[in-house]
Predict the structure.
Amino acid sequence: MDLEELTFWFEVVQRTSVPDNGNQLTSEEKAALVQSCQVLAQIAQLFADQIAGHTSDLQFR
């Protein structure tokens, strides 16, 4: 888990939030956006936990 993976999923969310037709997201596009946002949230939580774990390790040394 690293910042590159978090950045990748952020970019995926950005791309899926733009409708292909330029007007409004289709139901398929909305579903893809929801799924991408869920993955981004999970990755962000794992990354935050990883950082918090490293931070707490450093505090006790």
